[in-house]
Amino acid sequence: MTTLIDARNARAQRHPEKQKRPDTPVLRKPEWIRVRAPSGEVFDETRKLVKEKNLVTVCEEAGCPNIGECWSKKHATFMIMGDTCTRACSFCNVKTGMPDALDADEPRRVAEATATMELEHVVITSVDRDDLADGGAQHFADVIGAIRAASPGTTIEILTPDFLRKAGAAEQVIDARPDVFNHNLETVPRLYLSIRPGARYYHSLRLLERVKERDPSQFTKSGLMVGLGETREEVMQVMDDMRSAGVDFLTIGQYLQPTRKHAAVERYVTPDEFKGYETIARAKGFLMVSASPLTRSSYHAGEDFQRLRAAREAAIASGRTV
């Protein structure tokens, strides 16, 4: 009983805005969703380094199911600007509240960890920082610059917030020239009010389009969760919208419900359905598609970046517009 009470208290502190919501049903996970508990020497080394550098990872904060596999390969997605988000998306497990002030030393520590781990490809994401005048854009640029200086051979992928109502912020980040600019649309437009209430679908779409307009050499990437009640036709429309915005890389994964206070899983999409989505997306012209139950934005990001770059080179060689 004590453990249960402690767990509820911890959840309330992490998601205070969700505690008055009614509990949602939890569907039993099918076999294709289950993963092994994280363990192993390399996993422990990665965890130790993250702790020593006082870094935050989305792997831990968002409860990613792939943490065991990724950390065992020394792959980690660093989450900058703290562990507390100013928004309260109903799907997300990241803590909600008023964040602390930015840590000016964080860019150095992230860059140092990147160099120490000898990462060929690093993924940097963040919480939403609506409390900051630029939404944290300059901090993103500082982190990118620090990594370039400390580990010039590392390619950099960023997964950004939407910088809603932050004039000039997106341009600051684009001009820092990451190799991949990722911003997730997350779900279909119809579900935004319940799933992503603080965001605006067409603003997010326009953000991705602006990246391509300002720097066509940057790869753009976006992701969707499925299993929230969307229809197949709605997913295909989002694919078309992404392609119209010039998005190169699409990820599609199964939504997993963090707690009973989060949005419910309406259904578990089968592996065959994911294969169908991948086939359709490739036919629509995406350079790279990753669609599977456990696909996440940064899952296999390094290997996928190599494939993405090769796909662009092949398309250019064949005379196809990319």
3D architecture notes:
The protein is of the alpha/beta class and 322 residues long. It has a single domain, classed as Alpha-Beta Barrel (TIM Barrel). 39% of the residues lie in helices and 12% in strands. The chain is built from twelve helices and nine strands. The strands form two sheets. The chain has a seven-stranded parallel beta sheet with strand order 1-4-5-6-7-8-9, with helices on both faces. Strands 2-3 form a two-stranded parallel sheet. Helix 11 (271-283) links the parallel strand 8 and strand 9 (288-291). Helix 5 (106-116) packs parallel to helix 6 and helix 6 (137-150) packs parallel to helix 7 (169-175). It starts with a helix and ends in a 5-residue tail after the last helix. Residues 1-7 have low confidence and may be disordered.
Which features characterize this protein?
alpha/beta; TIM Barrel; seven-stranded parallel sheet; 12 helices; globular
Number of strands: 9
Strand content: 5-15%
Stated plainly, the CATH topology is called TIM Barrel
Number of domains: 1
Rounded Rg: 19 Å
What is the CATH C level class, in words? Answer: Alpha Beta
Distance between the termini: 58 Å
Report the CATH architecture. Alpha-Beta Barrel
Helical percentage: 25-40%
Contiguous low-pLDDT stretches (5 residues minimum) are 1-7
> What's the shape?
globular
- Give the CATH H-level superfamily: Aldolase class I
Mean pLDDT across the residues is 88
SSE order, one letter for each helix or strand: HHHHEEEHEHEHEHHEHEHEH
Major sheet: arrangement of strands: 1-4-5-6-7-8-9
Largest sheet entry: 7 strands, parallel
